[in-house]
Amino acid sequence: xxxxxxxxxxxxxxxxxxxxxxxxxxxxxxxxxxxxxxxxxxxxxxxxxxxxxxxxxxxxxxxxxxxxxxxxxxxxxxxxxxxxxxxxxxxxxxxxxxxxxxxxxxxxxxxxxxxxxxxxxxxxxxxxxxxxxxxxxxxxxxxxxxxxxxxxxxxxxxxxxxxxxxxxxxxxxxxxxxxxxxxxxxxxxxxxxxxxxxxxxxxxxxxxxxxxxxxxxxxxxxxxxxxxxxxxxxxxxxxxxxxxxxxxxxxxxxxxxxxxxxxxxxxxxxxxxxxxxxxxxxxxxxxxxxxxxxxxxxxxxxxxxxxxxxxxxxxxxxxxxxxxxxxxxxxxxxxxxxxxxxxxxxxxxxxxxxxxxxxxxxxxxxxxxxxxxxxxxxxxxxxxxxxxxxxxxxxxxxxxxxxxxxxxxxxxxxxxxxxxxxxxxxxxxxxxxxxxxxxxxxxxxxxxxxxxxxxxxxxxxxxxxxxxxxxxxxxxxxxxxxxxxxxxxxxxxxxxxxxxxxxx
Length: 504
Description:
The protein is α/β, with parallel strands linked by helices and about 500 residues long. The protein is about 40% helix and about 20% strand. The chain has 3 domains: about 20-155 and about 190-230 and about 265-280, Rossmann fold; about 155-190 and about 230-265, no CATH class; about 285-500, glycerate kinase, domain 1.
């Protein structure tokens, strides 16, 4: 198998292990008997045909289908807000296990095209809020949450409109704001985020099952924490706007809400009626990819499940790692020392949680130089929008890695690359990278050189944030990773596969 085939296998295996159905089956168990109980990670909840279900996110349709099959007639009613077109996509791909049965008591509302809030997702949010507000102390609200939930649960605080909230989100994203910063603003502008949904459901018990799509799995930030009460800091919001020079640009209604103290909420912040449980994460996906890579004969290392930072900087980090893999077995090599110092310096600058460069290099140095290597990582990078092109963070990262490897070869420091094959893959586990039909892209050390021979200026595409156009046009899109919506979402998977040319 070629490196590309291996990379595709690893990506699909990683996504497969975090599909919503299998994860929910592991998390939920129904105990029958005189008093039926729903047991979640050892915690029992009494069932009396008193369960209501709501969900929002890219993976909740599959989660809802499994939940309904487990709960049976204990489930009274449900509403889920899911991405536009996901039912048709899953039907087309034959993934019927992720679809609700025809007679389901769960209503499905599709919206948030291109992961942006719209009128349909607002309709869903209003319906979910109405359901929650009608519950009593005898009821149990099962909340299913996954990545993409923020855009699928928009309920702006008046007088902010959904269009104005979308404007703020786009402005922050275009400036390279982190997901943490985006969600801090989203929570402050929302009636349901930041614990608002849990507040609406009181006094009913709230059981929230979460598929994490944020570095570090912070429950208060995933989908902007609708079941996690968190105080709103006026100062934090204003500092974020000031950081990106947006204070005078955002709509006046947004400034008014963000600068106003948050209303007091009862019950107290400890919210004893709420239970938040993470059932899936990027780490689970990476461990499965590592296992599959080892089965294929690779020395497989997971660098971190919390990679973040601007794509061009992260690409430089991966390029340096790849070069050092190619330099294994060399002693007293000045290029190796130079690359190692650059890698350590850049890793310190990025401060990626869990990344131990020294330990990784020791493992690589102690391995056989002929053994192929697979470096795995996950997380979510950011893109600073400077152009008007079309792309996504995964495609842009892959293209940047190709450019960095090309630059290393041209400079002479990357001559070790000539003796090796190297493939880099970056893909979104949800199957959608930005406003494109691609999940990500593959790249290699030869890609930029081949592109230049065909008249493509890679740096020009990158400066215009036009990675998708490049990959779609170059070699008829052969380097695009296209999976369609997967029905899950645990951030991104990055993989670098390196082997000696002619080796197995």
